[in-house]
Amino acid sequence: MPLDYTEITIGPPGKVIDRLTRRIGELNFNSKNIRIGITRCPSETFDSLNGKLKWAAMKLVYATSSSSQAVQVGQMLRSWDAKLYVDTKEVTPDLGPNQAYYAFVVIR
After folding, report:
1. Per-domain boundaries in the chain
2. Strand order in the sheet with 57-64
3. What would the pLDDT profile of 23-43 be if each residue is shown by its tens digit?
4. What does the pLDDT look like over 90-103, one tens digit per residue?
5. Distance CA 104, CA 108 (A)
6. CB count, 10 Å around CB of 16?
7. Are 8 and 53 in contact (CB under 8 A)?
8. How far apart are the C-alpha atoms of 22 and 45, rounded to whole Å?
9. Which domain of life does this protein belong to (predicted)?
10. What's the predicted TM-score (pTM) here?
11. How far is residue 19 from each of residues 45, 47, 69, 94, 98, measured CA to CA in Å?
12. Nearest by Cα to 85 from 63, 104, 99
């Protein structure tokens, strides 16, 4: 499965959003099509998105164990480009042990 964890950024959303949006912009410019979003289960999200369209890869660009930071990053990404944002409805405050939230970019 083409999940790419090599570009994960961590930190407070306000401090990392410029870096994230700059990288997402580069990916958008260099790819045929992209979508962005937040997930707790990258492989399941990739599989569910692949049922509708065939995506080549999923790049994970941000990680946090804080549901509030995940919601904040999701809101920032949605406001940055709402047409690219995929609402996966997976960001909930009931985070268990050893779980993380990821901001992702799927690329075709």
Report:
1. 3-107
2. 3-4, 57-64, 101-107, 34-39
3. 999 999 988 899 999 999 999
4. 666 666 667 899 99
5. 13
6. 19
7. no
8. 23
9. Bacteria
10. 0.87
11. 23, 27, 16, 28, 26
12. 104
